[in-house]
Amino acid sequence: MNFKDLQYSISKLTTQVQSQVARNNPLQNQDTRSLNYWLFQERNELATLRTKAYQQLETSKAFMDWVNDESVKYEQDKEYRIKDVGKALCSLFNKQVELEQCYADEHRLYRRIIKLIRQKEQERLDREERRRAIEDRINHLKKTNSNLDRIQEFEKELATMQLIDDTAGFKKTMLKEAFYLKLNALQEYAEKLTLLAKFGKDIADGFEHPRDRIDIQVMEAMLSIDGWHSERRPTLLLFDENDDNDDAISLASTDIDGQLPVSSGSSGVNQSNTT
């Protein structure tokens, strides 16, 4: 087992242990336990997406190394166009890495919306705790015949707290936004990947039926994928694209950082700076 395999195995075991701790931790608030565990698993999924993109990039590099070796062995065989076809396929595989990275980026934004829901839920729990404290205080003051002005102040605060509880409405809106974002991204990823596979099969035909200007086929594939357009249900939230506060640590983060291509971003997601 090489170092990277060992590192991956250790990281995977660590993730499994952390998952069990997140599920069974008796110290966490029981009211948000399932939400916290959902967010934890979404973090793991995001890390897996990033690791997958990195692994695909490494696989493409290994494939291209073999193509170069093979082209040297059969340099005189003009019918075996391994270098031209292999290079073209490798370009498509690298494009696949870019698509996976774009999907991972949008999954990160989707998870951030869920974190907003958790934040709102925590605010609701804090208000509930404050409400119970006020009710206990009012009951105590009434029993001791204390100043009625103080009781009225507490009752006014209690009424105000009941009026501002819009947690359910907020959750409905945010859940719709979150899943629009996730499913828009999934649709784009799937349909672009379908285009990539279609062009890839046409290029792979070149192994047995050599064609001229394979580079033109690659260019057509890239233009079709980049020019893809489909109706996407709009989302309303804006995020700062420079804010990387997603706390999702990849299983191979030390290897991945700086090696994945910078994704161009989705054409249908709002990533403007927040105000």
TrEMBL record:
Picking any one GO biological process from the record gives: eisosome assembly
Domain of life according to the entry: Eukaryota
Could you state one GO cellular component term attached to this entry? eisosome filament
Pfam family example for this protein? Answer: Pil1
- Which residue positions does the secretion signal occupy? none
- What is this protein's name? Eisosome component PIL1-domain-containing protein
Origin organism is Rhizopus azygosporus
